[in-house]
Inverse folding.
């Protein structure tokens, strides 16, 4: 029982998952290697999503993948997807992330980490009796930190 690639007029074996919709559902279609590459190349997953949606995606993605299937696994589909999305809007998103965290562009990773920890403490719901405003702020901060962790850290640590 082999699945056939879902791409139009393709009859290769479909063994790679490609998400169907930009939400948190686990629906996907199966594509062959060539077509999943094509799919990744052409689809900027994050375009048209607001910060909240991106955050939710990241959160669900992180929960979804157990440590053994983390971003370090080379065949991880979402690693490819994530990298492609970053390539598209790399500079813009990095700069935005720096400004959300309130640190200067080019700061050492360790300093960014410290700033993040300070901000999390400051805006944590437990510290603000569940104030929604701070919750939103914390989401943005986490998103920005995740962004830099996945892009900027590598750049300065090597
Ligand atoms: Zn195919």
């Amino acid at each position: 029982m082999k699945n056939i690639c879902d791409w139009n007029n393709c009859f290769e074996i479909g063994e790679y998952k490609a998400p169907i919709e930009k939400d948190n559902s686990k629906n996907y279609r199966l594509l062959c290697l060539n077509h999943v590459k094509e799919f990744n190349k052409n689809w900027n997953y994050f375009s048209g999503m607001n910060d909240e949606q991106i955050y939710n995606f990241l959160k669900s993605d992180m929960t979804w993948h157990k440590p053994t299937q983390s971003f370090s696994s080379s065949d991880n589909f979402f690693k490819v997807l994530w990298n492609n999305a970053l390539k598209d809007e790399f500079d813009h998103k990095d700069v935005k992330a720096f400004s959300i965290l309130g640190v200067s562009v080019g700061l050492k990773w360790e300093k960014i980490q410290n700033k993040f920890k300070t901000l999390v403490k400051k805006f944590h719901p437990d510290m603000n009796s569940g104030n929604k405003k701070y919750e939103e702020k914390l989401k943005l901060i986490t998103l920005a930190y995740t962004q830099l962790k996945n892009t900027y850290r590598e750049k300065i640590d090597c």
Observations:
- The helical segments are 33-42, 51-64, 77-101, 109-123, 132-150, 152-157.
